[in-house]
């Protein structure tokens, strides 16, 4: 929830209670997700231990994310390097996709060529709406624009682009 810290003060003050309201009964799960959420929900009672903790966590996190996406609809969910998702994260993503299937939510999943993204496990929750687009390597001129944009529009020398190319594998 990095976006909360980027909001101007007055908007942040309005967003935090709304976030807590959306969390509702799911609030005890959220401190387990990140330190920021832990601070935001520090006053919430902790969950008791459960043999079904992984299932409870996946269901709860998917439901909370679905509420957030519906609240901010239309929304885009971007997951990069999807081939590295662990089984728990895939479970949450699958449940989330199912919960927001009828909402204005676009999922953009990126993976290396020839890897996991085309597999049935990832594509199934998205039904027939999966579009597979294979991108080639980034050209030097495009990389220069990307670096310049990241640096606030600063001029990027050919030497800097070359250095970035030397440490980057082009994917």
Task: Lay out the secondary structure.
Layout: H1 2-6, H2 9-23, H3 35-40, H4 53-71, E1 75-79, H5 87-99, E2 105-109, H6 120-123, H7 140-150, H8 158-167
Helix pairs in contact: 4-5, 7-8
What does this structure look like?
This protein is mainly alpha-helical and 171 residues long. The protein has 8 helices and 2 strands; from the N terminus they run ααααβαβααα. It has a two-stranded parallel sheet with strand order 1-2. Helix 4 packs across helix 5. It starts with a helix and ends with a helix. The mean pLDDT is 83.
Main attributes of the structure:
171 residues; mainly alpha; two-stranded parallel ribbon; 8 helices; globular
Specify the helix fraction band: 40-55%
Give the strand tally: 2
> Nearest-angstrom radius of gyration?
20 Å
Oligomer: single chain
Terminal CA distance reads 27 Å
Class by alpha and beta content: mainly alpha
Number of helices: 8
Shape: globular
- Major pleated sheet: 2 strands, parallel
**Low-pLDDT residue intervals, each spanning 5 or more residues:** none
Mean pLDDT across all amino acids: 83
Strand content: 5-15%
Q: Major sheet: order of its strands?
A: 1-2
The topology string of helices and strands comes to: HHHHEHEHHH
């Amino acid at each position: 929830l990095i976006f909360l810290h980027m909001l101007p003060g007055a908007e942040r003050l309005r967003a935090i209670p709304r976030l807590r309201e959306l969390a509702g009964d799911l609030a005890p799960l959220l401190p387990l997700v990140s330190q920021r959420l832990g601070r935001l929900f520090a006053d919430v009672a902790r969950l008791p231990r459960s043999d079904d903790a992984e299932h409870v966590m996946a269901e709860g996190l998917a439901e909370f994310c679905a509420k957030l996406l519906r609240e901010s609809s239309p929304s885009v969910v971007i997951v990069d390097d999807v081939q590295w998702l662990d089984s728990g994260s895939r479970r949450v993503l699958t449940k989330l996709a199912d919960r927001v299937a009828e909402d204005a939510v676009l999922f953009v999943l990126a993976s290396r060529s020839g890897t996991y993204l085309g597999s049935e496990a990832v594509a199934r929750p998205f039904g027939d709406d999966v579009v597979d687009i294979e991108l080639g390597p980034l050209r030097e001129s495009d990389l220069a624009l990307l670096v310049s944009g990241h640096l606030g529009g600063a001029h990027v020398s050919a030497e800097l682009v070359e250095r970035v190319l030397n440490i980057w594998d082009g994917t």
